[in-house]
Specification:
Keywords: Hydrolase, Membrane, Metal-binding, Metalloprotease, Protease, Transmembrane, Transmembrane helix, Zinc. One of its GO terms (molecular function) is metal ion binding. Belongs to the peptidase M13 family. This protein has 873 residues and is an alpha+beta fold. The chain has 33 helices and 13 strands. A four-stranded mixed beta sheet has the order 4-5-7-6. The longest helix is centred in the N-terminal third of the chain and has 35 residues.
């Protein structure tokens, strides 16, 4: 500002020339004054005469310079020049500073800086606008900061109004630059990071030198198991050479068990066409293949959340949800796929038997034609049934059977209610309601350490319905159903040239919108199978490569800061009374926070991981068997938990996974190293980005402890109503608000219509997303100390405030492209809302967002308070 510049001036009073009477007695060279007052032409003047200023200047100019005067004059000129340069530089920098502060709309004003009476420097800057401001912060200009800033800028679509379409504003650029791959139904930031993580794993799987620092024999064994598994998946030539044979072997074993072949059975059992159902089901379930029903080993949340007990549940279906069994177009495709699988298995087994007669103990091929015998009154009795026709008829019956199972299943939204799905009963109740299964025989197949006395049934009506369905269905159809379940689950592990692989692929393409025939990178696929089967082993080397420095400490700090912010907000939540608020704070304090990698198995100890995977048998030439071995190992470890106390150090996700979770019975939130990577987190990012992106992930999982389901578990993980009646009533009002809000959102159905989001199904996840406000408050609470530490530095080229960048960082992690068919499937089956609503629906309920972007009152994302679902304020 001009009035603050330093000014230099000379005395404006008269210059007085005093003549010393002793001047004539001094040496002439030293007697000459700096400003001389007498001259030879003025000798006649009297001593008292006062010459004018002009006369004195003229006299000085005419006076010869002494050596001393010459030196002093040179010094004065040098000093004048230096001061002029300095003042000029100062004026220039000052001008730049004021122009940076100016909003660009005010006319420039002239600032004049004078350096002595003979030098003038002029520049322009914005005029004074008020009190003095602090010095403007300079952005970070390192290469890392420039790259980070560029990634943010490139993700934006500034043609969109953030107050109207924040998802599009924050992600439009990224979506345009990342068209959906033909082999994927959905691709977003989560999938992009997952790809990056897979590349890290792929590198050490393919490059022995990448793990040369791991020299122990345990690491060598571990790496060999990982690399052999990966190699077996990559060897497509071997898979094509084997063809359908591995699946036929599996199906043949399944059929022998179902038919009771080779087993000692009583006369009564031999008359029961479903007598072999129990061993067949045990065989399927022991290999991780879901059919008819499923068992889970987890805590008894009503008695002791850490006592691992048996949970009986309904099975998954061949189609993603029961709604699909009402769509004729989908059923036509599904029936065609089932028919192809049944036909090709019978045909391929026939060919295999002819080529290798000793391969199958039973000389009769499967199925023994006709199978089943479907006589038609109009058919010639002597005519041999056509194999294609038989498969067609049988496929129709399998679809009808599955449709009945779907109708008997619990609806997905009701499934989210922990009280509705907790039904603790004596085991005798289960055996009585479902006599078609001999549960003692079934359990003995898994060799549990303790035989269960009680069982928790998620939906008791399902067991009764299942019994009725089995009792009224032909054993041939039940057998075919089991075969189809096995084929759909295992055919992806065959060579892509097989008919079975291609059949299941057709169904996948239909349900997800994947382009027909488009297959992704095989290496990426195989790394994914390594993660699924040996994830904790791969995680050891992934963590070593990607999760060093203080990543764990800084990630943990973000989480604990959010927990503190949540607790601080509780007293001001209007619908939560003090008793419930205090209890909620106790639960928040009791939550276990796990970040990065587990200690059981211990990621830092290869021996611990080897022991964990000791039952997984891997051979580089037998990919199909490797998959089965890994699945059987998982089931074996699961059943070992029955009757034991929960191991609180075990994780449900492997370290490279791009995800996180909250587990209500163990009251823990877990964040694998896989998600603690850009664009979610980096240990050297400015805090406003980390708290916006990873902070939302952390706050989401924390808020799950207090969502529509999580709030029903106390600080010890026990299912009980620990809130007061008034707080329960207040929460219910907020929950209904959220359900109504999200139920109003729609997505295209691909047929010219729209499908509404299920607000009941998604309410828990939507409430979890409201935790973003806690991440914002946590960031604000630590801002001053973070700024002092240099962790709130600005990025170059970003014309946004830190508050705006917080919300942009949050929205960016949900950027994705998705096919219409995949979106429909998600709406029907996923308790998470579509990503666009996870962004716009979340900030709709956060007034701080509208304030950060100066949204007008008429903006869509700045609704009046009465229309917002304000959970935590």
């Amino acid at each position: 500002m001009a009035d603050r510049l330093p000014r230099h001036s000379t005395d404006q009073g008269k210059l007085r020339c005093r003549n010393s009477r002793n001047l004539a007695n001094t040496v002439a060279a030293e007697a000459a004054p700096l400003l001389r007052g007498d001259d030879d032409d003025d000798a006649a003047r009297s001593e008292s005469a006062q010459p004018t200023f002009a006369e004195r200047i003229h006299a000085i100019a005419q006076e010869p310079l002494t050596p001393l005067t010459q030196v002093l004059l040179v010094v004065a000129l040098v000093l004048l020049l230096l001061s002029s340069v300095f003042i000029g530089l100062f004026a220039g920098e000052y001008s730049k500073l004021k122009q940076h502060e100016s909003d660009g709309n005010k006319p420039p004003a002239t600032i004049t800086v004078t350096a002595t009476s003979t030098a003038v420097f002029t520049t322009t800057a914005a005029p004074p606008a008020g009190p003095t401001s602090p010095p403007v912060e300079q952005p970070c200009t390192s290469s890392e900061c420039i790259i980070l800033s560029a990634s943010i800028l490139s993700s934006l679509d500034v043609s969109q109004d953030p107050c109207e379409n924040f998802f599009d504003f924050a992600n439009g650029g990224w979506i345009a630059d990342h068209p959906l791959p033909a082999d994927k139904g959905s691709f977003g930031q989560f999938e992009a990071l997952s790809q990056e993580n897979k590349r890290v794993i792929q590198h050490f799987l393919e490059t022995p030198s990448a793990t040369s620092s791991f020299t122990t024999s345990d690491d060598e064994q571990l790496l060999k198991k990982l690399r052999d598994f990966y190699s077996s998946c990559l060897n497509e030539n071997k898979l094509d050479e084997l063809g359908t044979e591995p699946l036929i072997h599996f199906v043949k074993t399944l059929q022998k068990l179902f038919r009771g072949e080779g087993l000692e059975v009583s006369a009564t059992q031999s008359e029961d066409k479903l007598s072999g159902l129990t061993p067949a089901m045990a065989f399927l379930h022991s290999r991780g293949i879901d059919a008819l029903f499923s068992f889970v080993i987890d805590g008894d949340i009503g008695v002791d959340p850490n006592f691992m007990t048996l949970w009986f549940d309904q099975a998954s279906l061949g189609l993603p949800s029961k709604e699909y069994y009402e769509e004729e177009s989908i059923l036509e495709v599904y029936q065609s796929v089932v028919e192809r699988l049944l036909f090709t298995l019978s045909e391929e087994e026939d060919k295999l038997q002819q080529a290798t007669p000793t391969l199958v103990e039973n000389a009769n091929v499967w199925p023994s034609w006709p199978w089943p015998p479907y006589p038609d009154d109009d058919d010639d009795e002597d005519e041999k049934p056509n194999r294609t026709e038989i498969a067609h008829k049988l496929a129709k019956e399998v679809i009808k059977f599955e449709t009945r199972l779907a109708n008997a299943s619990l609806d997905a939204d009701v499934y989210q209610d922990p009280f509705a799905t907790y039904n603790r009963l004596p085991l005798s109740n289960l055996t009585a309601s479902l006599p078609e299964i001999s549960f003692p025989e079934y359990f003995s197949s898994f060799a549990p350490r303790r035989f269960p006395e009680n069982v928790i049934i998620t939906y008791p009506a399902y067991t009764v319905s299942l019994s009725e369905i089995l009792h009224s269905t032909s054993s041939d159809v039940v057998e075919a159903y089991l075969v189809v379940r096995a084929a759909l689950a295992l055919s992806p592990n065959l060579g892509m040239t097989t008919e079975a692989w291609q059949a299941q692929r057709t169904l996948l393409e239909t349900l997800t919108g994947i382009k027909k025939g488009a297959v992704g990178d095989r290496a990426e696929y195989c790394v994914g199978k390594v993660e699924e089967s040996l994830g904790f082993a791969a995680g050891r080397y992934f963590v070593n490569e990607t999760f060093g420095g203080d990543s764990r400490e800084k990630g943990t700090k973000v989480i604990t800061d959010i927990v503190d912010a949540f607790k601080a907000s509780l007293p001001s939540v209007p619908w939560l009374d003090k008793t419930s608020a205090d209890a909620a704070a106790e639960k928040a304090d009791a939550i276990r926070v796990k970040v990065g990698y587990p200690i059981s198995p211990n990621t830092r100890d290869p021996r611990s991981i080897l022991n964990y995977y000791s039952t997984v048998k891997v051979d580089e030439d037998t990919y199909f068997d490797n998959i089965l071995s890994a699945a059987a190992s998982d089931e074996f470890k699961t059943w070992l938990k029955l009757g034991q106390q929960r191991n609180l150090e075990v994780w449900e996700m492997w370290p490279s996974m791009v995800n996180a979770y909250f587990n209500p019975p163990s009251n823990e939130i877990v964040f694998p190293a896989g998600i603690l990577q850009p664009p979610f987190f980096s240990h050297d990012w400015p805090s406003y980005l980390s708290y916006g992106a990873f902070g939302h992930v952390a706050a989401h999982e924390l808020t799950h402890a207090f969502d529509s389901a999580g709030r029903l578990f106390n600080q010890h993980g026990k299912l009980e109503n620990w809130w007061t009646n008034s707080s329960n009533a207040g929460f219910q009002i907020k929950q209904e608000c959220i359900e109504t809000q999200y139920s109003s959102y729609t997505v295209p159905d691909g047929k010219g219509g729209e499908i509404h989001v299920n607000g009941n199904l998604t309410s828990g996840e939507n409430i979890g997303d409201t935790g973003l406000i806690q991440a914002y408050r946590a960031w604000k609470a630590q801002f001053s100390s973070s700024l002092m530490a240099g962790d709130e530095y600005l990025l170059p080229g970003l014309n946004y405030t830190r508050e705006q960048l917080f919300f942009i960082s949050f929205a960016r992690i949900w950027g994705n492209n998705i096919k219409t068919a995949a979106q429909v499937q998600r709406v029907r089956t996923d308790p998470h809302s579509p990503n666009i609503f996870r962004v716009d629906g979340t900030v709709f309920n956060i007034p701080e967002f509208a304030a950060a972007f100066n949204c007008p009152k008429t903006a869509k994302l700045n609704p009046p308070p009465e229309k917002q679902c304000l959970f935590w304020s």
